[in-house]
Amino acid sequence: AWVSGEPEMHLLLGLLAEAAVPAPALFWVGLKRNASACTHEEQPLRGFSWEGVEGGTAPQEVPAELGRWGQEPLRSCLTARCAGLHLAEDPRDGPSWGWKE
């Protein structure tokens, strides 16, 4: 799966809220950085990209509003890594979601 923009993110967060998923929680939604790719701090997804699903084509352009990281990923160019959608325990203290390696 992948998230291509803010409307899809709001839909996903709404579905998780309806399912009464307890926070904190971490969900992998298809973000991966291959071993040959480096961390890029200037990019919203920091060098991670969406995995294709069933031969589909994941969006290449990522809107800046999806560049919310709850915890910045480690800087690396040597190790494959995944990132997930992290739901915060108490959204009143900050954003309700962010990416986490």
From TrEMBL:
Any GO MF annotation of the entry: extracellular matrix protein binding
Membrane topology qualifier: Single-pass type I membrane protein
Source organism of the structure: Gymnorhina tibicen
Membrane-spanning intervals of the chain: 12-31
GO cellular component terms attached to this protein's record: external side of plasma membrane; extracellular matrix
Gene Ontology biological process: cell migration
Name the UniProt record assigns to this protein: CLC14 protein
Signal peptide start and end residues: none
